[in-house]
Amino acid sequence: MTTPEPALSAEGLGVRYGSFVALKDVTLQVRANSVHAIIGPNGAGKTTLFHALTGRIRAATGRITLNGQDITRTRDDDRVRLGLARSFQVTSLFATLSVRENLRLAAQGRTPWAALAPWRRVAEGDASHDTADALLRRLDLAGVAGRPAGELSHGQQRRLEVGMAMAARPRVILLDEPTSGMGTDDIGAMTALIRDLGRDHTVLFIEHNMGIVMNISDTVTVMRAGEILVEGRPEVVRDDPEVRRAYLGNMITGDLR
Ligand SMILES: Nc1ncnc2c1ncn2[C@@H]1O[C@H](COP(=O)(O)OP(=O)(O)OP(=O)(O)O)[C@@H](O)[C@H]1O
Ligand SMILES: [Mg+2]
User: Which of 26, 48, 49 to mutate to test the pocket of ligand 1 (most atoms within 8 A of CB)?
Assistant: First the structure.
């Protein structure tokens, strides 16, 4: 049996900030249609790994492939076009436009700012309406579809950000701490959304909440000091003696910080 090609992979990735080695020889394979978590203490290099994968920063060494295509030297916006999306920041939401309108514009591959230009208005009735409606249901935001995005709760805004990334129909979605700063209800909704996303997307997410990681991940990669410490199925990683030794104190509180 041949192993299916990973959706996203990194080989020997290295990143430096000046003389500081932030990532060292990171090799990672993200299976298509899986939910893959990256965990590790503060400063382990998780966000730096995302920056290198998305092309926001350039890796000093190594190779990155997306669906088998070498994207190591591909610009960040071209990586998005090839199907690699990261969650938008709240600031990219247009606060005075409705939730549905934000999604519709994202489905057209446009920012709300560009769409405000009246000479660039798009004809009504295109497929973006259907995409927006489907996303509203998936995001559990149908009840607030007509509300200005700026009036949503923090948790709802974070779900909308994920939806904005989904609207571009990416193959792989990267989420950096999608549940940070959320209360219990919103954490539950985001967790359900990520699990649902894994059915037809590939999701790579950074998360400190171990309950979420153990519940919804197919694979967990543990990073420490710029390197990969352990990788495997959640229960294997949880029971790994080296992970336990490294994080025992914090594991008791259920948080890997
Ligand atoms: N632009 C930068 N210049 C210099 N050092 C940086 C820069 N960005 C990050 N670092 C350092 O690189 C290391 C890795 O940072 P990174 O943000 O990737 O960690 P992280 O695992 O995402 O941590 P956290 O869980 O706190 O978000 C840290 O020691 C950090 O201080
Ligand atoms: Mg980080």
Answer: 48
CA-45 nearest atom, ligand 1: 18
Q: Is the CB of 51 under 6 A from ligand 1?
A: no
Least confidently predicted of 121-125, 164-168, 206-210: 121-125
What atom of ligand 1 comes closest to residue 40's alpha carbon? 21
Tens digits of residue pLDDT in 23-39: 999 999 999 999 999 99
Confidence of residue 252 (pLDDT cuts 50, 70, 90): very low
User: How many CA atoms lie less than 13 Å away from 71 in the CB half-sphere?
Assistant: 26
Locate the domains of the chain by residue range: 1-83+170-257, 90-169
The CATH H-level (homologous superfamily) assignment of domain 1-83+170-257 is: P-loop containing nucleotide triphosphate hydrolases (3.40.50.300)
Q: What pTM did the predictor assign?
A: 0.89
